[in-house]
Amino acid sequence: MLEDFYAGPRCALVVADAQRRVLVAGHGAFAATGYQEQELIGREIVDALGLDFGDEDPVAVSLEWGVRKMGVPCAFRPKGATGPVAALCDIFPAYDEDGGLMLALTPD
Predict the structure, then answer these.
(1) Which residue, 24, 26, 82, 104, shows the most beta carbons closer than 10 Å to its own?
(2) E strand map for the chain
(3) pLDDT tens digits, residue range 29-80?
(4) Residue 90, strand partner residues
């Protein structure tokens, strides 16, 4: 998934399974979100990060159709924040039998 994507210094990379449960939070996740990896693992990815995409669900689209969703505007809830923070989200489906995804969240 990372062959043609280069995460910026403020980007949080989070991997979820086909049921949308967080498996691992990697590069920059704590710095960008305030959440430790153990606070995210096992939780549904959108709920865990407090993601708000408005009326669409690009995570569902990516999982169902196996397509990338790039530069999706969203808001998320960093740990301890008093309100949502604007961000961009890139979603990469896994192309193996596990069928999960990687989400790259970059605060604006």
Answers:
(1) 104
(2) 12-16, 22-25, 69-76, 85-93, 101-107
(3) 999 999 999 999 999 999 999 999 999 999 999 999 999 999 999 999 999 9
(4) 104
